[in-house]
Design goal:
Elements lengths: L1 H53 L2 H7 E8 L5 E3 H9 L3 E16 L2 E14 L2 E2 L3 E11 L2 E11 L4
Parallel strand pairs: 1-7
Antiparallel strand pairs: 1-2, 3-4, 4-5, 4-6, 6-7
Helix pairs in contact: 1-2
């Protein structure tokens, strides 16, 4: 009887160990996948920034989703067609854009990116607010991350 109890205890311990190892591996894969996704979104955002500074409308057409809607730091609302038209006509131009405090949270095929942005540029002849907080919403479509929405809020001195 004592041998049966010992064997049962050993089998139970081995099963528990196997289950816990499997759970840990799944969590590790999820963490690695999330990190990889965060990096992919940030890389796509850096490509968007380069395309805006160089007015690369071909890249912008690829990056912005067809149903994109954005609210700029001056409160101007633009859809994808309007964004491309403003970059093509050079009514919206940027000399530099840098980001900081960037955080990406992933929810399946959607990612929400937040952070700070320092921009030097002009929107229809007026300087864009330099220091902003932003929220961007990305979605996975056709095997790549596309920007579906963004919103900027100017940072004002407190």
């Amino acid at each position: 009887m004592e041998g049966l109890v010992i064997r049962t205890s050993i089998i139970a311990a081995l099963l528990l160990s196997t289950v816990l190892t499997g759970i840990a591996q799944q969590q590790s894969v999820r963490t690695r996948d999330a990190t990889s996704t965060e990096q992919a979104v940030q890389q796509q955002d850096q490509e968007r920034i380069r395309a805006q500074i160089t007015a690369d409308t071909i890249a912008l057409r690829r990056i912005y989703a067809d149903d994109f809607l954005g609210i700029g730091p001056t409160g101007v609302v633009r859809n994808k067609t309007e964004v491309i038209a403003d970059f093509t006509a050079h009514t919206l131009t940027y000399q530099s854009i840098t980001t900081a405090e960037v955080r990406v949270r992933v929810y399946g095929n959607t990612a929400v990116e937040t952070g700070r942005s320092t921009m030097v540029g002009q929107d229809r002849g007026k300087a864009v607010p330099r220091e902003n907080r932003f929220t961007r919403v990305w979605t996975m479509a056709d095997g790549r991350w596309q920007l579906v929405a963004n919103h900027y809020s100017p940072m004002t001195p407190q």
